[in-house]
């Protein structure tokens, strides 16, 4: 059986570079996963081009198979684009108050976020003040007041001054209405007097990008010089993310991003689109309508979510630690000699099972998430049964399953507590697998599928 296979392994052992065919198949899967996650097409193109370039220059690893190696590169690159791999904290002012301005389209989730941010800050010992600088929509001020009340955070609003959280009401003499810039400026003054240490300014949004809106946001920005300008974007926006993010980046030059509505179907592709087009960090995610549906953003977790691979890095780390290279090499040799028997199969099965329950492993394979239901039904006992059956065979039977006749089958079934037809099924599957492996190795010398080659 085939010199091709052994030469393929020799090639891997010689530590050359990853080959184009190793890389392109994996990249095709990655591209599909990114498009499924609604990453903008232009971003997918530039991203995969970068991955390909990097992968082509990569030395073949001793402990990872080429697919795992490419996936590892994808994950590193993705985490990098999403925030240089580190969580970016809020930038607090040296001299309070810290001023945080929210910007984004109408319905993006700014007002909801103001409440969450206020609640979160208050919970960690800050004294926030919410500011109603959206004077565009009739109910915007009231909406913020309701949110503030729920969060127990005071709201500064035109005409009504400050509504305190159950304590004293504060009003500002001479305050005017109708001008969001003045509202923002007055609120900051009040925060200084009353020692609120953070000021969160809610601003107006439009349904689409609009120069008048952008100018208003810019005017507020210039009047109060915020420490943070957070661009809030609906994760469900999909392909429009690029254009909207660009417009706000040019319009108000925001300092950070908040991704909202991540509780829905959105896989978070907008995160990659926005981060790669603007280069700005993502600080938080919003995951529901409740006050506590709010999380600090972690680039590594979002990378997994976008690719829908479960915790692929964990899998790879486990594989690096636990795969016995020597064993894998021996198996490959046997396969190439045509002497891969059930005992070898049992060894391989145990190697794989060291990594964790099969169900979890399968769930980490790219594209498998679509089969969640089937995975749920995957019966771990099936694997136990397989092991038990092989254990009930003699060494000679394991080496050469063709000698297993009817009476041996009955003995094995009895010994492992299964039916004869279950033994038959296993032998049949093994025979098919052996045939398939022979074919695969004849065709492309591709190594043991799923067995992490040397
Ligand atoms: P704004 O126009 O940017 O101020 O957006 P709003 O804060 O008024 O939010 C618009 C709608 O989206 C409201 O119905 C919110 O309840 C809802 N919303 C905001 N954030 C989230 C979120 O993270 N998840 C979900 N499911 N709904 C949200
Ligand atoms: Mg609003």
Describe this structure in words.
This is Signal recognition particle protein. This protein has helices at 3-13, 20-36, 41-56, 66-81, 110-123, 140-151, 180-194, 211-224, 241-252, 269-278, 299-307, 312-322, 325-337, 342-354, 358-363, 372-377, 380-391, 395-399, 406-416, 420-444; strands at 98-103, 128-133, 155-157, 161-163, 198-203, 228-234, 256-260, 282-286, 294-296. With 454 residues, the chain is of the alpha/beta class. It has a nine-stranded mixed β-sheet, with helices on both faces. Helix 2 (20-36) runs antiparallel to helix 3 and helix 5 (110-123) packs parallel to helix 6 (140-151). It folds into three domains: 1-15 and 323-454, Signal recognition particle, SRP54 subunit, M-domain (434 Repressor (Amino-terminal Domain), Orthogonal Bundle), CATH 1.10.260.30; 17-58 and 64-87 and 301-322, SRP54, nucleotide-binding domain (Four Helix Bundle (Hemerythrin (Met), subunit A), Up-down Bundle); 98-297, P-loop containing nucleotide triphosphate hydrolases (Rossmann fold). Residues 104, 106-112, 205, 260-261, 263-264, 286-289, 293 line the site of guanosine-5'-diphosphate (GDP). Residues 110-111, 134, 140, 202 line the site of magnesium ion.
Overview features:
454 residues; nine-stranded mixed beta sheet; 434 Repressor (Amino-terminal Domain); disordered N terminus; binds magnesium ion; alpha/beta; single chain; 10% strand; 20 helices; Rossmann fold
Q: Give the strand order, joined by hyphens, for the main sheet.
A: 4-3-2-5-1-6-7-8-9
State the helical fraction: 40-55%
According to CATH, the fold-level topology of the largest domain is: Rossmann fold
Structural class: alpha/beta
Indicate how many domains the architecture comprises. 3
Q: Radius of gyration, rounded? A: 30 Å
Instruction: Tell me which CATH architecture of the largest domain applies here.
Output: 3-Layer(aba) Sandwich
Percent in strands: 5-15%
Run of helices and strands = HHHHEHEHEEHEHEHEHEEHHHHHHHHHH
Q: N-to-C terminal Cα separation, in Å?
A: 19 Å
CATH superfamily of the largest domain: P-loop containing nucleotide triphosphate hydrolases
Low-confidence stretches: 1-14, 160-176, 310-317, 444-454
Mean pLDDT: 80
Strand count, sense and closure of the main sheet?
9 strands, mixed
- Write down the overall geometry: elongated
CATH class group of the largest domain: Alpha Beta
Question: How many strands?
Answer: 9
EC number: 3.6.5.4
Catalytic activity: GTP + H2O = GDP + phosphate + H(+)
Protein name: Signal recognition particle protein
Subcellular location: Cytoplasm
């Amino acid at each position: 059986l085939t010199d091709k296979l052994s030469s393929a392994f020799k090639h891997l052992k010689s530590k050359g570079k990853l080959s184009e065919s190793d890389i392109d198949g994996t990249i095709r899967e990655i591209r599909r996963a990114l498009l499924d996650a609604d990453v903008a097409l232009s971003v997918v193109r530039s991203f995969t081009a970068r991955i390909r370039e990097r992968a082509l220059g990569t030395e073949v690893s001793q402990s990872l198979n080429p697919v795992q190696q490419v996936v590892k590169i994808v994950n590193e690159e993705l985490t990098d684009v999403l925030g240089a791999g580190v969580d970016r904290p809020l930038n607090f002012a040296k001299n309070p108050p810290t001023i945080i301005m929210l910007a984004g389209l109408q319905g993006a989730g700014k007002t909801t976020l103001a409440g969450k941010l206020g609640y979160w800050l208050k919970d960690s010992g800050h004294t926030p003040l919410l500011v109603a600088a959206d004077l565009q929509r009739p109910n915007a001020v009231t909406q913020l007041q309701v949110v503030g009340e729920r969060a127990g955070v005071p709201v500064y609003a035109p005409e009504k001054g400050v509504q305190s959280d159950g304590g004293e009401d504060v009003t500002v003499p001479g305050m005017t209405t109708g001008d969001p810039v003045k509202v923002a400026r007055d609120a900051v003054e009040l925060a200084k007097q009353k020692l609120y240490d953070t000021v969160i300014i809610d601003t107006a949004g439009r349904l689409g990008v609009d120069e008048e809106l952008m100018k208003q946001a810019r005017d507020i920005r210039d009047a109060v010089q915020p420490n943070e300008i957070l661009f809030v974007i609906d994760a469900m926006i999909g392909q429009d993310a690029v254009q909207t993010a660009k417009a706000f980046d040019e319009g108000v030059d925001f300092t950070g991003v908040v991704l909202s509505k991540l509780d829905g179907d959105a896989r978070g592709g907008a995160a990659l689109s926005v981060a790669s087009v603007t280069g700005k960090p993502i600080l938080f995610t919003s995951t529901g309508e409740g006050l506590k549906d709010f999380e600090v953003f972690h680039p590594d977790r979002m990378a997994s979510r976008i690719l829908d691979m479960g915790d692929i890095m964990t899998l790879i780390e486990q594989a690096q630690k636990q795969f016995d290279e020597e064993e894998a090499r021996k198996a490959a040799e046997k396969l190439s000699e045509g002497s891969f028997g059930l005992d070898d199969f049992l060894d391989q099965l145990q190697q794989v099972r060291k990594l964790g329950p099969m169900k979890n492993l399968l769930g980490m394979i790219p594209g498998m998430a679509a089969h969640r239901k089937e995975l749920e039904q995957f019966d771990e006992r099936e694997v136990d049964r397989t092991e038990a059956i092989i254990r009930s065979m003699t060494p000679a039977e394991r080496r050469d399953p063709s000698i297993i006749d009817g009476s041996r089958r009955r003995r094995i079934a009895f010994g492992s507590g299964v039916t004869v037809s279950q033994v038959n099924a296993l032998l049949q599957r093994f025979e098919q697998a052996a045939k398939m492996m022979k074919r695969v190795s004849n065709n492309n010398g591709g190594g043991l599928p799923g067995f992490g080659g040397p």
